[in-house]
């Protein structure tokens, strides 16, 4: 059963209280400096963390130090999902969250993370440059109590598996770890397997203990999280161009002047292109690194069987989320740059 945004927020409120998450007004530093806490799930030094630091640096420079971004990586302020819901509640200032989690609050957010949506890097860059995301963000903000700033590419997802997989048929009954979100679970089905929900930080142990037999993520994350130690095959599916969405609470946004808001928006998009460049540079080298560390790289003879499964799920989503005009939004993203 799909949880409503209200229920999700209620759950988040309880979890954030248990985690001791901060509440109250936006933090003030010396001389009236506005201190904003940014939460993300990646480890220190990961491309996401590097881009977050670049974003904080740009904002600090352009506001003369009047906005100070404090970065909390590696789920220090709570799980990725809880931090997103904390942004909605106003207990977390800023969060980088998988688009699939945002889609749990407003389904149309998932169109950019739907399997086999982007053709290549030029297509993705055209999407970043074009008018579609700002319009999509405004649509999300109508229903969800937060400001949606920009998508940052997390990477093209691959399958790390204990079992040799060359097609969806090979993955039948394969337990594939996915994040706890509706759209993310479709990734396992597109790959031909069965979704098994395991938190990101617990995936290594889940694979080691056999709770899952495979997991999917970009090569950069497979490397950073050392999944090469507990899987053998790296299957080049590129089934999702995975995005993290940078969101800020309404309370934190209201604490900024109009001039500061513009600086934040501009820096956010600049950092989005910076993040894309990092990912483009690292993905192939990380794939080579994983091969050197003992993973066997598998190139499926064809991606068409995966695309066919994605097309079936697309039909389901178009019907299920017709009131959100999901199919129209997805088509617009797919046509970006044409």
Q: How many strands in all? A: 12
> What CATH architecture of the largest domain would you give?
3-Layer(aba) Sandwich
Give the number of domains.
Answer: 2
- Overall shape: globular
State the fourth-level CATH superfamily of the largest domain: Bacterial extracellular solute-binding protein, family 7
CATH top level label of the largest domain: Alpha Beta
Low-confidence parts lasting 5 or more residues at pLDDT below 50? 1-24
Over the alpha carbons, how many angstroms does the gyration radius reach?
A: 19 Å
Describe this structure as you would to a colleague.
By secondary structure, the protein is an alpha/beta fold. It has helices at 5-19, 47-62, 80-89, 99-105, 121-129, 132-141, 182-190, 203-208, 219-224, 250-254, 258-292, 304-320, 326-334, and strands at residues 27-28, 34-39, 67-72, 94-98, 147-156, 158-161, 175-178, 194-197, 214-217, 233-235, 241-248, 296-298. The protein starts with a helix and ends with a helix.
Summarize the structure.
The chain has 338 residues and is of the alpha/beta class.
Protein topology:
Elements: H1 5-19, E1 27-28, E2 34-39, H2 47-62, E3 67-72, H3 80-89, E4 94-98, H4 99-105, H5 121-129, H6 132-141, E5 147-156, E6 158-161, E7 175-178, H7 182-190, E8 194-197, H8 203-208, E9 214-217, H9 219-224, E10 233-235, E11 241-248, H10 250-254, H11 258-292, E12 296-298, H12 304-320, H13 326-334
Parallel strand pairs: 2-3, 2-4, 7-8, 7-9, 10-12
Antiparallel strand pairs: 1-2, 4-11, 5-11, 6-9, 6-10
Helix pairs in contact: 1-3, 2-11
């Amino acid at each position: 059963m799909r949880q409503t945004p209200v229920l999700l927020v209620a759950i988040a409120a309880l979890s954030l209280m248990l985690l001791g998450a901060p509440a109250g007004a936006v933090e003030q530093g010396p001389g009236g400096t506005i201190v904003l806490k940014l939460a993300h799930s990646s480890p220190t030094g990961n491309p996401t963390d590097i881009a977050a630091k670049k974003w904080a640096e740009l904002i600090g420079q352009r506001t003369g130090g009047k906005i100070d971004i404090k970065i909390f990586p590696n789920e220090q302020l709570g799980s990725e999902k809880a931090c997103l819901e904390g942004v909605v509640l106003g207990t977390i200032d800023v969060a980088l969250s998988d688009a699939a989690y945002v889609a749990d609050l407003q389904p149309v957010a998932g169109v950019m993370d739907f399997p086999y949506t982007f053709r290549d890097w030029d297509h993705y860059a055209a999407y970043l440059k074009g008018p579609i995301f700002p319009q999509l963000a405004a649509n999300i903000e109508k229903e969800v109590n937060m400001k949606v700033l920009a998508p940052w590419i997390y990477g093209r997802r691959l399958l790390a598996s204990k079992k040799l997989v060359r097609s969806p048929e090979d993955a039948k009954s394969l337990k594939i770890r996915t994040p706890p979100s509706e759209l993310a679970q479709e990734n396992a089905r597109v790959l031909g397997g069965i979704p098994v929900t395991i938190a990101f930080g617990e995936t290594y142990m889940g694979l080691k203990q056999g709770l899952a037999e495979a997991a999917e993520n970009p090569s950069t994350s497979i490397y950073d999280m050392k999944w090469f130690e507990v899987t053998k095959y790296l299957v080049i599916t590129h089934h999702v161009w995975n995005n993290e969405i940078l969101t800020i609470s309404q309370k934190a946004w209201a604490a900024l002047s109009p001039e500061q808001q513009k600086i934040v928006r501009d820096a956010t998009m600049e950092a989005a292109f910076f993040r894309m460049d990092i990912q483009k540079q690292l993905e192939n080298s990380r794939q080579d690194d994983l091969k050197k560390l003992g993973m066997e790289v598998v190139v499926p003879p064809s991606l068409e069987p995966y695309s066919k499964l994605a097309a079936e799920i697309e039909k389901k989503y178009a019907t299920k989320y017709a009131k959100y005009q999901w199919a129209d939004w997805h088509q617009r993203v797919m046509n970006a740059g044409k």
